[in-house]
Amino acid sequence: MTLSSHGKLENPVDETGEMSILDLPELALDCILERLSPAGLCSMAGVCTSLRERCISDHLWERHMKKKWGRIIGPSAYREWQFHIASSKDFGSCKLSKQKSLRKLLSIVWPSSWMKSKDDKLNNDNSFKHSSSLSVDSIMSWYLAIESGRFWFPAQVYNRENGHVGFMLSCYDAELSYDPQTDTFQARYPPHGRRAIAIETGVQWDRIRAPPVDTSPHDLHISDCLNDLRPGDHIEIQWRRNKEFPYGWWYGVVGHLESCDGNENYCLCHNSNTVVLEFHQYTRGSRWRCTMINRKEHREEGNEADGFYGGIRKLKSKEEISRWKQLWPREILE
């Protein structure tokens, strides 16, 4: 009885009946199950009722959930999942039969030829006929709903629409669906004014993040960092073309006032009520290169020509700053 290189258990039950994995001590069995991949757990769930109950437990799937989806799944995605399982007609009364639920989850990770033989086994195995159904609010159900692409979840996409020049160094809210065939995502962006929903395919993992703040793209983020801002700080600021559009988050840095020569020993910019925000991805002289906000009374500021600037986040994580720098355009924008 060994684990394969893919994390699948080989020979889980001896056909002679002389040895069974269930004869192992509880701790040893738990250690084996914790080492299984999601596909391995799905396979083991088809062995017998006892193993099935163990293999679908939340504590085993929580680790897989965090490992694969944790970086791009946030509180808003969890709320959407709760709404999905409460209203989805696919789940009927929120209960699936044992055989149907097992067949459905196994079909995601196993070829159809294997599924036919597995179905025959399930149909002939009395141990499965009276077992409990798979709870749709389990972590396993959520994992497989994302993995299969059936569940669209809210997240944010850097440089939307395949790096369109009008969105460089920005991050916009979208609904995402995973494509297990290509290991990429499909993104649906909310409509901008009268513009139809934009759809982008082939979105790579490194362009996706969970929303860092729980603020709707249509709401002004309440800035709590304004008094701390000083030249050199890295920030994200909400911006939208007009008030019919949702906000996106744009990367920038805090600059010096025109009256300051930039000498750190004499700089007093942090004492001024005026804060200069610079966007170095744009060339000097561009109308998008710089804007100023009031530290004490900042709300949404702007006009129909230059757009509207909203709430501000100060970036404190080196990882966040590094990610923005990795997305830097090859050429300075106009």
TrEMBL record:
Pfam family, one: F-box-like
Segments forming domain F-box: 18-64
Entry-linked InterPro entries: F-box-like_dom_sf, F-box_dom
PROSITE patterns: FBOX
Protein name per UniProt: F-box domain-containing protein
Species this protein is from: Manihot esculenta
